[in-house]
Amino acid sequence: MYQHLSGTHTKVPWRRIVCNNLATTKSVFILWLAMWRRLTTIDKLLTWIVVTSDVCLMCGSGSESRVLDFLHFTRPVAGFTAEVKWMIKSSKRGKGRHKMLLMFFAESVYSLWLNRNSKVYNQRKTATELFKEIQFRVASRVSNELSDRL
């Protein structure tokens, strides 16, 4: 009866990243929104008259029109999509270090999202402070056997 009522839906390829993640609930939720491309961007905030400029807050150049443009990487990558593909590949492995990698990924997206939002409202954090927050969140949620790897 339940299967008949719910119907058939295609499975998203990144379901293991979100469903098997041991990160904090709010981090997993923001990651889930990011995967569905539902996070608010500067262009949406501009239409709501929350901000006055569409300049990217992280780098200060260009406009932030896509959902994950705020995730700027210092190393050459193909973008957020390539990072997600890497996480999908890693999520298929059940080892503890891969679970910890998924936790770091979710906490990193969440921390970058918080930092980006804090820049909208004129509060700043350094990269070192962000990394320490991410590390603390993962260390507080990871099992004892994996905590020595941090």
What does this protein structure show overall?
This protein has 150 residues and is mainly alpha-helical. It has one domain (14-140). The protein is 55% helix and 0% strand. The chain has eight helices and no strands. It has helices at residues 2-6, 15-19, 25-35, 42-47, 80-91, 96-120, 127-141, 144-147. The radius of gyration is 17 Å and the shape is globular. The mean pLDDT is 78.
Explain the layout of strands and helices.
Elements: H1 2-6, H2 15-19, H3 25-35, H4 42-47, H5 80-91, H6 96-120, H7 127-141, H8 144-147
Protein name: Reverse transcriptase zinc-binding domain-containing protein
Pfam family, one: zf-RVT
Domain Reverse transcriptase zinc-binding: 1-66
Features:
0% strand; 150 residues; RVT-Znf; globular; Reverse transcriptase zinc-binding domain-containing protein; mainly alpha
Short description:
This is Reverse transcriptase zinc-binding domain-containing protein. With 150 residues, the chain is an all-alpha fold.
List how many beta strands DSSP finds. Answer: 0
What structural category characterises the helix and strand content?
mainly alpha
Low-confidence stretches: none
Question: What fraction, in percent, of the residue positions are helical?
Answer: 55-70%
**Euclidean distance between termini CA atoms:** 47 Å
Number of helices: 8
Number of domains: 1
User: Would you list the SSEs in sequence order as H and E?
Assistant: HHHHHHHH
In round numbers, the mean pLDDT is: 78
Based on CA inertia axes, which overall geometry fits? globular
Oligomer: single chain
